[in-house]
Specification:
Elements (H helix, E strand, L loop, with lengths): L3 E8 L8 E6 L4 H5 L2 E7 L7 H16 L8 H24 L9 E7 L2 E7 L3 E6 L2 E4 L5 E3 L5 E3 L12 E6 L5 E5 L1 H4 L4 H10 L4 H14 L6 E8 L7 H8 L13 E2 L2 E9 L3 E8 L4 E8 L7 H16 L8 E2 L10 E4 L3 E3 H7 L5 H20 L2 E2 L8 E4 L4 E3 L6 E2 H4 L19 H4 L6 H17 L13 H9 L6 H4 L5 H10 L11 H9 L13 H4 L1 H23 L2
Antiparallel strand pairs: 1-12, 2-3, 3-4, 4-5, 5-10, 6-7, 6-11, 8-9, 11-12, 13-14, 14-15, 15-16, 16-18, 17-18, 19-21, 20-23, 21-22
Length: 573
Amino acid sequence: MEPIVVGQVSSAGIKPANDDACGVHIPQGSQLYNKGIIAVIADGVSSSAGAAEASHSCVQGFINDYYSTPESWTVSTSASKIFSALNQWLLGHGQRVFSNSRDMVTTLSVLVIKSSTAYIFHVGDSRIYHCRSGVAEQITNDHHVQGRGDKRYLGRAMGINHHIEVDAHKLSVNQEDGFLLTTDGLHEFISSSEINGVIAQYADQPQLIADTLLTMALENGSDDNISCQYVQVNQLPAEDEQSFYERIQELPFAPELSVGMSMDGFKILRELHSSARTQLYLAYDIQQERQVILKTPSVNYEDDSTYLDTFQHEEWAGLRTHSPHVMRVYDIRERRRFLYYVSEYINGITLRQWMADHPQPTLQEVRAIAEQIIRGLRTFHRLEMVHRDLKPENIMIDSHGTVKIIDFGSTRISGIEEISSPVDHSRILGTRNYTAPEIIAGGSGSPFSDQFSLAVILYEMLSGKLPYGDLGDHPSIEKLLRKIKHSHYTVLNHHTKEVPVWMAASIQKALDPSPAKRYPAFSEFYHDLIQANPLFRIDHHTPLIERDPLSFWRGLSLLLIVTNITLLILLNT
């Protein structure tokens, strides 16, 4: 039996043309679990010249664009961006084709069923009903405004204003639930009791439900276009535990590898690192003619499903992040016979080693490294990922000075968290000394958490110390959190006078125990690292060269220029 079955119909009714549109897509393979199924319905406003084009463009555009958005994005993020883009396209196209930006107007209602959750997005007066146990409950609200007398007008629709306000709902889905999507040519001519009767009479026959409701609307005198979709959930589009365990154990562990061996076209050159959890090898990719890193899981965890899922989770994240400042993971799945993954070989050292080699780095060196780390983190955050294990050991600097973030095993992926799984990815923790307190306390983390970790690293680079001391010394999470939250913070200038007070203040702000008090964006953080923020309270007893080196040298240069000009004038008189 198909997990999702849909019946749909769209008719002009008694009108000469059909301005309604509807569509559905049920993907196959991993997209069914990672993105879910989608049903969309739209009713072009007949008073606009491009009503039919507007409704059809929104339905097809939304479906196509949704499956083109990153799998790491949440459903809500994808929908929000698509609604905005479609709305702007309608306004622009209406202006270009009809010389009126409001000639491409339509309602738009969207249903996404991902894992065990239904996501509903809605603008206008089309409707979505949730059907359970033979009773249809209207989830959406009709966006009507009352006119004179009994007249009502559409108060909200796609293609009216540049700012589009979208209603969003989320609810749990059970097997045997149904969802009914309709345009007003149907639901304004059929009562709720009649709808419930049809659903009860033709249970498990979605197409017959849609056809019957269409016929009933016509018989009841509908004078508008009529569209209807019925989505029946036979099985939730999510992995059950058995399927989960079968997937993660699909590939066998790699054999014990040694120098000179070849596996799947990779020749082992040498072992780089071995621990109780993983092995890293430098290998040569014979097919691509390049050196790579081959990472294999330890056989100690062969029966540990959580570990195996986390190992594959790391590859999943790496395959989707593309930045010069993030380690590249190669897609070799078609030729792989064993469980391992392959990434680029970074010829360089870790930031930890760099810090040991540069115990007193210049401010310019620290800022240059911070800027590159921020660029890498932005790649994660644009994909709705949070690294969550940023530390000097997980940052590489290659022979050209390029900084790259590595190790994605703790990465939070918002889109994956929406999928039911035996593994709770939100609770994977990083290293205590660099992990934000909200994650230590049990939260799943946010971009603010990566900002905290970066600030710890910068503090350590500049002082050789940790801002809250060695948190690994605290066996109790409660004691650790008390130490951080009760401001057991050592001001950076206590360790070093080389750092301007305003720069130390910017790092302290990023290290605030409360995420809400940190910087709202990395751009603001970096700006305050390189230029004094006048909002910070500055100790004016501190020499200017320490408080603001840039202003000091600018002022000195200006003074020297004025002095030289004065001397030239005096010499020529």
